[in-house]
Structure formats: structure tokens, C-alpha cells
Amino acid sequence: MDFLCEIVQALVALAALSVIVVLIIAHVTAEMVTLTRHEKEKYFLTVTGEKELFPSLHDASSRELSVVIPAYNEELRMPVMLDEATEYLENRQKQQPSFTYEVIVVDDGSKDKTTEVALRYSRKYGADKVRVLTLVNNRGKGGAVRMGALSSRGKLILMADADGATKFADIEKVEAGLNALNPKPENMAISCGSRAHLEQDSVAQRSMFRTFLMYGFHFLVWFFCVRGIKDTQCGFKLFTREAALKTFSSLHVERWAFDVELLYIAQCFKIPIAEVAVNWTEIEGGVLMEYMCPRTVLSMILLSWLDDMLFR
Q1: Of 141, 175, 181, 195, which has the most beta carbons under 10 Å away?
Q2: 102: β partners
Q3: How does pLDDT run across 237-280, given as a tens digit for each residue?
Q4: Are 133 and 228 in contact (CB under 8 A)?
Q5: Is the dihedral of CA 130, 132, 133, 137 positive or negative?
């Protein structure tokens, strides 16, 4: 009886997901979104505490790499990731003097000391290398990544999660994937880190219901939106500046599953996409696990879409 109940719940969940995905596609193809930011979100703090205006993604690049890190209540986990990232970037700069970078931590309306923690790294490395963008209100991960990307200076733009689930040195893998994409129309290309190679191990640890829902979500994404990408949700993606401008300027969904829309937009514009296996470790304490309670997942997708549709 319990098994039958789980199957019925799964079918209902998949039906709901189908409707939501169709609605999201309709929303994506609707009129262009208006990109606005609060006055306080236009500036970052220098080491001396002075306010300085963020640059625009529309400007020419002045750094080789921008690393955009969305963070919501990450005061405890983020230091580990930032230590790993800055150590790698500093060592790379020593080995390649022409290599320049910036890290942009986007505090997505946190209630803890995420901004204060990030500012410590800005003081340590200088605001030219580490900048903090504090959002007045919580936008969701997609909104935070977009705001960071739109404020970046890099020729290449990497989005990376604050929990450090992906080994930062694997940026070399996604870079190789990006470089292998030829030709790049108008210099637009995206390289996605992927955990698809780890899927069998994770399936063994999940209930039949959650596994069924996971594969169902993957199928719906493939059927309605993104084809050719096995893992759309990995938070480790590398964009050329031109591809970032094209995709983030068109993004509507700012919360859960924004990655799906982002890649859907890229495929609509015929931007080439690579998928590269990366090292990934599940980190405890996350605000949102990818495959949490199905009812919660469905609620968050629906609420995210309604929020973007009704209150933008």
C-alpha cells in the first residue's frame, strides 16, 4: 500500500512538474525583464571603507576571470571555499603574471554575518581582487548570480557555490571544455561542471520515490527545455563574457532551477555548451539540497515561478 501511494504521489508530482515547466517556457519567451537594483547595490566598499561604483557587464573586460559566488547565510561554510579559491587564484597569478582575477561575493539578503566575513577577504586581498555585493532583499540564487555577473569585469565569468562542494581547481577542467568549443559564434560559449558521473552512487542512497522523481525531473528538463546536458543543476559554470551578457540579461527565473532557464536561453541563442565532469562533495548545512522532499521541491518551484511572474 505504501509503495502504491509513493507511485501515485510521484505521478502527481511529475504531472505538476510538467505544467510548471511549460509555464516557465512560456514565461521565458515573454517580454524582456527589467533589470533594476537598489541604490545601495550599485556600490562596493573599498579597503578604506569608501563606496565605489560597480562596473557593468556591458563594459569591456579588464580581468581574465571573474568568480561570482552567491551566498545566503553562509558565514560558517564560506570561509573554507574562499580560502581554497583565493589560494588557487593567487598561486595561478604567481605562475602566470599576466593572469588577473576578481572574486565577487554576492550576499543574497543574508540574516547572518555573510557580508562581514566576505569583507575580511576584501581587506586581506584588496577590493580590486575581492568585492562584496550585498543585496538589500533576498532574490534567490539565480538573482544573486545574475547581479554578480552584471557587476563583473572578467573576460570569463565563473559561477561557484559558496559551500565549496566543487573542487575549485576543477576550473581548469571547465576551461578546457570551454576552449574545446569551436567555433564560438560571437565569442559566446558556456562550460558546465557536471556530477552526472556520480549519479549511480547517489541513487543507491535514495529511496525509490526520490530516485523516480529525480529521473522524472531530468526527463522533463530534457523533453521541454534543455537537451544534451545531463546535469543542469551543478553550480559550477563558466561563461564567456559575451555569453553571460546574452543569457543573464534574458533570465526570468531567479530562484530554484534558474540553471534550466539559463541553459534553455543559451540553446535558443545557439550558444555552444560543454559539459565536463568535476569533483563534487555533498556539503551538510545547505539551504536547499537538490533532491529534498518532493513536496518541498514542487512548492519551491511553483512559488519561485509565481514570484517572478506576479511581483517582478
Answers
A1: 141
A2: 66
A3: 999 999 999 999 988 878 777 888 888 889 889 999 999 999 98
A4: no
A5: positive
Residue 196, all three cell numbers = 552526472
Structure confidence by residue, pLDDT tens digits, 142-161: 999 999 999 999 999 999 99
42-79 pLDDT, tens per residue? 999 999 999 999 999 999 999 999 999 999 999 999 99
Between CA 94 and CA 99, with CA 97 as vertex, the angle to 5 degrees is 100
Nearest to 149 by CA among 243, 29, 84, 226: 243
Residue whose cell numbers read 595561478: 92
Please give the grid coordinates belonging to residue 223: 523533453
Q: What is the C-alpha separation between 94 and 31, in angstroms, rounded?
A: 46
H/E element holding 103?
strand 101-107
Name 162's Cβ contacts closer than 8 Å, sequence gap at least 6: 69, 70, 71, 74, 77, 78, 81, 105
pTM summary value: 0.78
Residue linked to cell 519551491: 300
All residues at 6 or more sequence positions from 203 whose CB lies less than 8 Å from its CB, including other chains = 211, 214
Domains in the chain: boundaries: 37-282
Q: Which CATH architecture has domain 37-282?
A: Alpha-Beta Complex (3.90)
Q: Residue type for 65, please? A: L
C-alpha cell at 49: 571603507
User: CB–CB of 198/280 below 8 Å?
Assistant: yes
Q: What cell was used for 282?
A: 555533498
- Return all residues near 297 (Cβ < 8 A) that are at least 6 apart: 213, 256, 291
Three-state DSSP class for 165? coil
